[in-house]
Amino acid sequence: MRFRLLAVLLSAAAIASAAESTLLKYVMPDAKVVSGVNFDSIKLTPFGQFAVSLLPAPDAGFEQFISFTGFDPRRDIHEIVMASPADPGKKTGLLLVRADFDRQRILELLKAAGKNPEVYNGLEILAGPHGHAGISQAVAFLDNTTAAAGDVESVKSAIDRRNAGMSIDPALAARISVVSANEDAWVVSNVPIASFAKSVPDRNVSGALQGDLIKSIQQSSGAVKFGSTIEFSGELTTRTDQDASSLAGVVQFFLNMAGSQSGANGNAGIAALLRNLSVNTASNAVKIDVKIAEADLENLIRLAQHNGAPKARL
């Protein structure tokens, strides 16, 4: 009895910690993949400001959108959370956005443009025509600071959860709490990576995802922390300790090979980045970590842009 009470209290503590993001309460109970981005914290970092500088200059249409709606996504978005049951057969998912919306103003503009919302559980839902696989996409404002978008049923379910308690799986919430703590962007998956093989259009990639070693990966997660040094961390949970050891060996082999090729090709920045990447095992988990100076990452991005730019013709 005491053990059961302790388990309940620990689960409640994990959920409370994960609930630092108010958006998590809207995540469906059968979610298997959840990710989040904290724009408020990223915008304050040097890399966030660099990323904004890369955005194309707003055109007249974008400026008109801001004027009509009062909403500037560059300024007004605070946080997003994406969630999905990761069932290729259903193709359902949810995008949750915390931002400064003028909900009534936007809805009136859409109605004036001929969009007729459906009222569900006291809220208006704007749904589009049935698209890919016969699924209709929709959007609804849950309140003045929260919007939900996705397939119609997922949006309606999010509306139903407005006044309910946290419904996300406690085990998944506990993992989110650990992975997302003090991070700017994160993703947690309780789905074996191999299960995504059928949804990948590239046959070579799809085939690689069905290899025995990849099939051993049962869960995965990753996170990024921005600052003067940018820190990437990831974890792959396998079926056994031996699987983790084998996977770490393969990952390290390919990293060494990529580092050697980058150095030989004169890509010193990439070679240095790969040298700073560490691969370790802890029981049945493979942990991957890399740190890079923010200025070095900016240089790598500029280099990639330069190399990818179309060549001028004489």
Short description, anyone?
The protein has helices at residues 2-18, 39-43, 46-54, 60-69, 73-76, 103-112, 152-160, 170-180, 203-209, 212-215, 241-264, 268-275, 294-308, and strands at residues 33-38, 77-84, 94-99, 118-120, 123-130, 136-143, 146-151, 185-189, 217-225, 229-238, 278-282, 285-293. By secondary structure, the chain is an alpha+beta fold.
Outline the structure in words.
This protein folds into 2 domains: 21-160, no CATH class; 192-308, no CATH class. A hairpin with a 2-residue loop joins strand 11 and strand 12. The longest helix has 24 residues, at 241-264. The chain is globular and about 60 Å long. The protein is an alpha+beta fold and 314 residues long. Helix 11 packs antiparallel against helix 12. The chain contains 13 helices and 12 strands. The protein has a 12-stranded antiparallel sheet, with helices on both faces. It has helices at 2-18, 39-43, 46-54, 60-69, 73-76, 103-112, 152-160, 170-180, 203-209, 212-215, 241-264, 268-275, 294-308, and strands spanning 33-38, 77-84, 94-99, 118-120, 123-130, 136-143, 146-151, 185-189, 217-225, 229-238, 278-282, 285-293. The model is unreliable at 1-20 and 309-314 (pLDDT under 50).
Entry keywords:
about 325 residues, 12-stranded antiparallel beta sheet, globular, alpha+beta, 13 helices
Describe the secondary structure blueprint for this structure.
Layout: H1 2-18, E1 33-38, H2 39-43, H3 46-54, H4 60-69, H5 73-76, E2 77-84, E3 94-99, H6 103-112, E4 118-120, E5 123-130, E6 136-143, E7 146-151, H7 152-160, H8 170-180, E8 185-189, H9 203-209, H10 212-215, E9 217-225, E10 229-238, H11 241-264, H12 268-275, E11 278-282, E12 285-293, H13 294-308
Antiparallel strand pairs: 1-2, 1-8, 2-3, 3-7, 4-5, 5-6, 6-7, 8-9, 9-10, 10-12, 11-12
Helix pairs in contact: 1-8, 11-12
